[in-house]
Amino acid sequence: MNLKLTNKVILISGGAKGIGAAIAKTVAYEGAFPVIIGRNEQDNKLFIKELNQLNLKADYVTAELNEEKSSAEAVYQVLKRYGRIDGLVNNAGVNDGVGLASGSYEAFVASLHKNVVHYYLLAHFALPALIKSQGAIVNIGSKTAETGQGGTSGYAASNGARNALTREWAVELLDAGIRVNSVIVAEAYTPLYETWINTFDHPEEKLSAINACIPLGNRMTKVEEIADMVAFLLSERSGHTTGQLIHVDGGYVHLDRAL
């Protein structure tokens, strides 16, 4: 299927590792031009080098998205270099374990900034360009908004907000022809996930137990499977899909995990 993404400029936050990197690679293979935004200059450079070695074109902007000015500057730099933005993938975030009992006001608000405020900021600053190109927005979300996890109030609240913003923006941007959707992730093995799993005394046993609860195949979702859905939602081939929360999770959220 030709997704017709050739030469489309796609902005991807948190695009140097994990799910974001898989998305960048996938859209690049489809002929698009991903521009990743990440806070770590070295990570950004290494990933762009990896793509270039595959004969894929891409670029990066280093920015601390928790800051309004930095988010605005990131969008400005993309427009200065390429003159357009055809798609925005809001992906950056971290399950930072700011709980109800263990957290604090300051930590909770900081978690919101790490996980959802920059979704708003990037969309806000990129909106004029997206209106011009009649582009698309894809927000990456987490099952924690629906299932809970325990001990992660900031991250769960942020993902609830991501879901709500997806629906809200889909309504607000109907007249502009901008489609807004979310891809909801349950269990996908990323560098951040590996860090979390290694906090357990017996990480291999914990990982096996989690896999056993994923109905389809008793395995984790591959980051490439998430990226494929994102690429489709960015493309004209999903031209009448908006306001949707699409779970790419092997049935984890909506099927009986006792299967």
Structure description:
This protein is an alpha/beta fold and 259 residues long. It has a single domain, classed as Rossmann fold, CATH 3.40.50.720. The chain has nine helices and seven strands. It has helices at residues 18-29, 41-53, 68-82, 105-133, 144-147, 153-172, 191-197, 203-212, 223-234, and strands at residues 9-13, 33-38, 59-62, 87-90, 136-142, 179-185, 245-247. The protein has a seven-stranded parallel beta sheet with strand order 3-2-1-4-5-6-7, sandwiched between helices. Helix 1 (18-29) links the parallel strand 1 (9-13) and strand 2 (33-38). Helix 3 (68-82) packs parallel to helix 4 (105-133) and helix 4 packs parallel to helix 6 (153-172). The longest helix has 29 residues, at 105-133.
CATH topology descriptor: Rossmann fold
Give Rg in angstroms.
18 Å
Order of H and E elements: EHEHEHEHEHHEHHHE
| Alpha-beta content class | alpha/beta
Percent of residues in β-strands: 5-15%
Q: Could you write a compact summary of the structure shown?
A:
The protein has 259 residues and is of the alpha/beta class.
Strand-helix topology:
Blueprint: E1 9-13, H1 18-29, E2 33-38, H2 41-53, E3 59-62, H3 68-82, E4 87-90, H4 105-133, E5 136-142, H5 144-147, H6 153-172, E6 179-185, H7 191-197, H8 203-212, H9 223-234, E7 245-247
Parallel strand pairs: 1-2, 1-4, 2-3, 4-5, 5-6, 6-7
Helix pairs in contact: 1-9, 3-4, 4-6
Keywords:
Rossmann fold; 259 residues; single chain; alpha/beta; seven-stranded parallel sheet
